[in-house]
Records
---
Amino acid sequence: MNHFTIKSKYELKKLMKLAISTGETLLKNGAEAYRVEDTMERICNSRDNIFNVNSFVTQTGIFLTFEYENESYVDFKRVRNVTINLKRISEVNKFSRKFVCTNLSLDDGLKIMENINNMKVYSKMHKAISGAASAAFFTLMFGGNFRDFLSSFIVSYIVILILNVTNEFKLTFFIDNFLGAFLASIFAAISVEIGLGANLDKIIIGSIMYLVPGVAITNAIRDTMSGDSLSGLSKGMEAIFSALAIAFGVGVVLSVYMGGIF
Amino acid sequence: MEIGFTLLYQLILGFFATVAFAVYFYAPFDSIFASGVAGGLSWVLYYLVLNGFDNKIIGTFLGAFLVGVLGEYLAIKMKKPATVFITPGIVSLVPGAGMYYTMLYLVQKDYSQAVIAGSETFFVAAAIAIGIIVSTIFSRSLRHFKRKSG
């Protein structure tokens, strides 16, 4: 076993900061609650004179407490705007393993975390193209033809570009999802009207796939089943409301379009 | 022969959809191909069960289970957390179509069909989660068993 210790209160504060920022990065980029708790506890427990490490993570915040020289320290962090970034989760995972096993200094650790947080993986253009491609392939998987494939690609590409712009205004996830589904349905209807697309339903289904909170629902159920019921509930609520927003967005357009007003 | 072509076609579709999603979720570059294969295989399994036995929920469960097992295996092989492979892999199983049809029936005021589609959507979502959990438990106990015997 290793024998790294914390020597002063100054170092202690850095350890706290490092653990919290690791947890925040994980949670913000879509990791499960148990992974966040586990990583933070491992980082604190890797120093021998830190005792009684406890962490508590929900979808919206992180709590961490530990004991040093018979005094307990607490810190917490509010987390907003969870998106999915697998590269960052993978990097933090690598970093925490390295931190626990080697004599990496706290300053180096903080620097690595900062690098991970500022890391650029793919550009917005890549994201738009890949989102559009996934939508187009889903259209094919659900039984669309080649014309649907094309129109689904174009529709999703435009929608993701618009969503990139509206993301700057920091609207809530509800409005974002509503807008995405609404625009996707409108453009899909237009593409059918001008004769590019053939099956309206296949195009819409493909184009809402990247909005559908499938991962959030799965993670919510996983969290709940593994005992993190509060995290599961908050994640589940968010997932249900995202699904509702998407359904509203599609529903508004469908009811107008099917009602023959369009 | 024709079935073979259909399955190959579906495998390719599933592969590209998963790869595109992996990029969309900012997956690490070296993991993208592997998660594409996992996603493609699980989509083919889902497609087989759906067309052979006409059971969406069992198909989704088996597909998610396959993604989970492959994800855990790849996690050890490539030294990355399993989430990196599982997250893009399950997206093709997510009931986006079910959600759409639920809304469509509601808009058309066909409430009994909407309830059927809606509850199926919910059960499919639950099947994904259960498939992932079972696969995690399965691979953990397998690892435990291997360590004990080896």
---
Amino acid sequence: MALAAVLATMLGQLAVALLAIGLAGRGAWAGSVLYAASAAAGAIATLAALASLLAAPAPPETLILPFGLPWLGAHLRLDALAAFFLAVVNFGGAIAALYGIGYGAHEPSPRRVLPFFAAFLAAMNLVVLADDAFTFLLAWECMSLLSWALVMAHHHSAANRAAGHVYLTMAGFGTLALLLAFGLLAGPAGDYGFAAIRSAPLTPWLGGGALLLAVLGTGSKAGLVPLHVWLPLAHPAAPSHVSALMSGVMTKVALYGLIRILFDLLGPPPGWASMVLLAAGGATAVLGVLQALMQSELKRLLAYSTIENIGVICVGLGLAIAFQANGMTAASALAMTAALCHIANHALFKSLLFLGAGAVLTATGERDLERLGGLIHRMPQTSFLFLIGAVAIAALPPLNGFVSEWLTFQAVLLSPVLPHWGLKIMVPAVGGLLALATALAAACFVKAFGIAFLGRARSAAAATAQEVEPTRLVAMALLALACLLIGLLPGYVIDGLAPVTRDLLGAVMPAQPAAPWQPIVPVVASRSSYSGLLVFLFIGVSASLAALVIHRVASHAVRRAPAWDCGYPEPSPLAQYSAGSFAQPLRRVFGTSIFRAREQVTMPLPGDLRPARFALQMRDLVWEGLYLPLAAAIGYAAERLNALQFLTIRRYLGMVFLALVTLLLVLALWPSF
Amino acid sequence: MPHGLAFDIAHLLAGGLVLMSFLLLYQVRLYAMLNIFALHALVLALSVAWQALVQGAPHLYITALIALVFKAITIPVALHRIIQRLGIHREIETVVGIGPTMLVGMGLVALAMVVMLPVTANADALAREDLAFALSVVLLGLLVMVTRRNAVSQVVGFMSLENGLVLAATGAKGMPLVVEISVAFSILIAFIVIGIFLFRIRERFDTVDLQALDRFRGERR
């Protein structure tokens, strides 16, 4: 039933895409109607998926459609895991489409966005529903190509074209790795149905190879270091609601692929896989957030922050494998629940933040934080909603980011019981990295919100910004509301995820108390517990009391006065604290080694009237150390091989001859023919 | 291991074909090369005919006849006339010296033996030797093509390579006539195509030395 409903909404999205090809240019109304239809389809699919998730433990629904490979057909399956990801995908998609109603009016070339947008949503749904490797890869590649088309929507800028190029290359690499992974999984019999793959266990070597290839393939889409390079280029290049979709939702679809292969298709994953995921996750989290801190462009900052969160989720998945491989099923269910919970949460608040950044972009035309400022006066609602997103992503209670990161740390704290000595050392170290990343993320979003929305406007555009349309505010408000609700009532989410962990791990977290005010308990009540509602009430009451006391004791009136300027009256708003200056202490601590940051101050000679100059140099070591040499090697090889196109006929004959003789030699010398 | 007369003669003829290939390898004049090629085809025809007699397969006589008529007579005569009509320089420029080429040729024959004999351990002796010799002839034909600059001598190399294929095909019992005839005709067609190309090349560039073509291929060499 739910599967049929989701399929119907996918057809609806495709119909919207087809209609959009013809109608999108006809005027603002057409775009609005189509975006509204897409949002409605997304909403229906979300409800269907949630209903299916809550109805579990019903048996999974399956369906075979008569297209795809002739002898295979397209197998679809809706189990608890798929239902959870469908809910995430379609909620994010519905909100992005709702936001698109307002956005579409400002889009100069709607035909380059709307058809691909709707088809992109359908493709992501199909990835989650696929139950054979062929359908999965087909949908995966459709998803990549459609999002590439969206990245290239504003292709007039050379930076966007470069981003599209890098994205296409990395997407091709990822699909290649997945193709090989499925090839290994299908085995010599070559049955690409997931049911057959599940029932046929692999040898440790083949399984390990498939596992590593799957991590590479899905990691390149999700943004695991060092495969993340395309993400901060491509996500900001797309229109903002598409950025929200790519960053908030598509990376989650990639993680779905990872979870599906690792926990479902491969059977119980081997213990060493946890080390791979833990190491990659820890490195990804810290490097992502440090890069985010260094950025001054809002959407780029958000994209790097996505990388950080993917790292956090991967650490959760790694912990789940580690506990499961050592027989600690309850702890493994906790880690998996934390990871899934963070997947949902990140989809919510990252979408919210990207939509907020899009609103700022529409209102001011500026992406650079150094040219924003003071927007809280001009766009109060957007500012408030962005603040909620920033607080949530900074993992402050009582919002949802705290819940999932707290659960992850609870799982980290269970690690001393692990019998494996390597994990015993590694997990606390990764936990330390995670704690560092979380703290830095808070600093990062203090910077993002503070520089963009507080202070005085740094440019004329920021000074004259106007609040965006109500539909966009509603879209953002819905996301903020979801953030708040999950933060206040995490127990229901944990219980809702129980069928998923039962399917994947055969274990569930302890049932959470039914009453909303009772705290959630990850392991046992004596160990740790947390009640978002109580924290929220405490914060609300104490803040109101403090405000009341201040206003009673100090003054009733609101006064507006010039900000204190340290006794140095400088009229230019550029003298304010800037994004670069906010990041400077952290850059000096971490950036000197990680980014090879070099600062250079050139002072004028005494009596010289020139201003002093400050130059900052930073390098991306992953890009320079891995990708540039790789590109250079490929270029060198291509240059050398190019000469083969211009040989003489006799040389070609000679090459055929040599190849033949070499093969015969191999045949003659092969020891056991 | 004692063998009968049938085996000895087949062995002699196949070995003679390899010998002819070696003769092809060190000819520096075009006419001499064509004569050797005619001899090559004649030995092939004899070898095929002997196989037909030994195997009791009358259709192989047709193959032998094709080899005799087309390869030993028609093609060499045609090539003679082409050379006369085009006034081609009769000395062949080789790329590598004759001595090293002969040494490489011996190496190739050794390679063919080493590859073929263990692979065909279960086949009967006649087919084994035949296959090994046939592979030698194929490899030597390729070597002729690689070491000559002149287009006509490359055609001859190609034809001798094909003779090796026919030897292999007839050596194995039960090869249907259709296969042999189709191979023979494809070679004939290839010969016609190459002949036409020779005229066109000559018409355009005033020489059949393939080096002259290189200047006209793409932006660099």
